[in-house]
## 1
Amino acid sequence: MRSIRDMTRPLRRAVAKRIFNFPENWDHATAQRYEIAAARGFVLEAFPRNYAHWEAQPADFIYYSVDDQFFCGDTELFAQFKRHIPNRRCLEIGSGPFGHLGQSKGLRNRVIVDPLIDAYRDIELREFGKTFFTPDIQTHAVSAETRIESLLDSIDGLIVCRNCLDHCDDPLLVLQNISDYAATGCWVFLWSDIWHLHEPDAGHRNITRSPRVMETILNGLRLPIVRMGRAIGNPVDCVEFGCISRKVA
């Protein structure tokens, strides 16, 4: 049975096109306007609940768990990750308004790259007087395609890039940057819609229909897959791709 979200998708697309004056195809400036408008509503609705949950967590809390979309119940792999991650440098590319690393208070050396990170922080501080993006987190308000020299071969803990690639001008360049930032042994959590089965729009782009192509690209970038992740979307909407990789020499 189709959900209300699925049934109303054509109407919601039409309304969004009118509100944001969407062109028919990918347009980065339009995508950025859409992202910040959507984030404002999401923050107003979800921030109090998410922040209260975060405050209730212990000091060593990290966002990931053995039952999440990446580990899928693999207790041995999760134990390896937990042994590896303490006191290492971690990076998130495309955090959105909350992010995974912003909520991982147990990680001490965190870096976030998102062109809208300053805007997200400002919304949270203006509306609630607090934010997940605290001063101890190094932030870069630049595109994921921007090569940040200080990050090269320096991320030895984790790189997470979730729901980002299909929002970028050049997804393959973003993957190249991820490989360049990752030191040998670094874990990489990757998830994205890679093909939109209805149609892409001004805020989303297609990458490839084939998960096998994504795997080939990651192998070429010395990011072989350790485990495929769990599908989280509706397969009638998109082809998605998610995995755990680790950088090899």
## 2
Amino acid sequence: MINNVVIEDKLKNRILTAIGYPVISLTDFGNEFTDEVFKDLVLVPSLELYYTYYPDIIPYQENVSSGSKFEINFPNEKVYNAINVRLNTVTTTNSSNLTGNAFVDNSNLLNNKGYGNLRKYGTRNSYGFETANYTEYQKNLYQANQVKDVNYDIDIKEKIITGYSTINGILSIDFVAFNNDFSYIPHIHLQEVIELCQAELQILLGNLYSLQESDLPNQLDGDELLDKGNTKKEEILDVWREAGKGILRRN
């Protein structure tokens, strides 16, 4: 859940132009329509929708051991899910053997595995021992890979990841999160988010007009507000859906 939305006045005023600002302001709809109500009913739903399609990514890593269970809490209250949970098992390479030359590095790694440079009978040749050892290594590696596994479950409600690993490695996770500050929205998406906020505001006020006729600015038409708001909202969401699938989110 997003709390304490931060937005500059100039951005807020751009959103309010959808209802006729500065001629018409929020207070014209009653003293109950406070700044906090505006944030909770207009800005928060818009930000939640935006960060469903374009979340903040928080990378995280933790060592896990073979035959062990693990529990990982979400890093903070803004995180709402996790994606790309994966296990990296290549954690034992001796970096001192890495030179940056692919051929030399491969030779060094072969030597570290115990099947490279097997010189036999006082000669420079391995007489097939190197190939035989490499083949045996690959067979053992294949068999080991058959039992490698990491099972996990993401509890979105409790905000925790639990699981079990059958292999030593580094568990890498990409957490996805909301952000409550409009200044962190990339410029390429800012106008779309502003228009989505305007649509949410028009829908909110359009519904208000359908319930109450008196004491509301007569310059605005409730049905027109609803039509404009719903149309614009669907246009923006269609663009975001086309760009990529949204991330599952549960409150």
## 3
Amino acid sequence: MNSMAIPCLTESNTGSSRVAGKKNNSKTYPRLLVCEGYEDYCFFSRLIEAKSVDGQSIHRFHIIHSKGNTNFYNRIDAFRQETPKTFANIRHILFVADNDDTPADRFSLVCNQIERLCGPGTAPSAPLIRKGKNPSVEVLMLPWTNEKGTMEAACIVAAREAHKQHGRRIDDFMGFIGVEQWTSESRRSKAWLRSNLAIRCERDPFISMGDAISDPRHHDLIDFTDNSLDRIARVLAKVGR
């Protein structure tokens, strides 16, 4: 795959790219991260700013969100049309999606869109396998390869470690209401994190995930320096190296 030929679409998706947490469409970093939603956009911007790997900061990415896991194609085409000079310098694309409760199906959904973008046979055979060049493509599934759940599940340990006493109380509460009988792992992880944020955020128990992650007033809610996020940070650090 020497180039990405994306046909012009009539449907567009508005929005700016973010570079390590800052709006910036004039820079030409060669890495593009495409995720599902605004909360994921906040998650990766904050992680890139907070984490270092082997003593080095993570390279900057252009970060865009597609408003859903079926809209990667349209969002990338919109990014290409909005910022053609920036897009021309992209050499690596990292797609990020949630596994939800069906990891294999969700991965296939991403791969189908990669092949629509780049042509047949261009999608990787498994998550975290880089394929092609100029641009290379890679898929990161959250919370991790073949693990059921979402971005919220990736945040649980970091939230628990940020306030261990409340973390234990939420564990007890989850046990009391019988979440182990729920059939959805995604539902369990979201319920745990939502309950934790609700009791710990003094300003607003209904705080959004985006604000909990990106608003500096709430940076104590989820510790983005926690070791539980190292494996995701290492994936980011390897892109383009």
